[in-house]
Specification:
globular
Amino acid sequence: QVQLAESGGGLVQAGGSLRLSCAVSGRTSSRYAMGWFRQAPGQEREFVAAISWSGKSTRYTDSVQGRFTISRDNAGNTVYLQMNSLKPEDTAIYFCAAREDVYGSTSSQSWEYAYWGQGTQVTVSS
């Protein structure tokens, strides 16, 4: 079993920045690829960014490309999402997720992730 705990959310003005963290605990001996997803009120959960276990492969949804950066510190069992130039439409609950990384790939499909955190709220004011 793997436990995920997000932190770093909050209220920020448009154009500002936040850095989300996801602490991974439990069965950390396995290699896990990680993803960030978000869910705005009344909307379905959507993919934001993903990173392979090695960190060599990353993937972003088009709306955050160039503004958000996903990274990881495997020694510290933490994954990050640096969010710059935030927009009101980025307002959502942000979730981190983990899946076993067999091929060093990334995935934007939520169903492929076996473990999920509880989420952290990000609110961007205009």
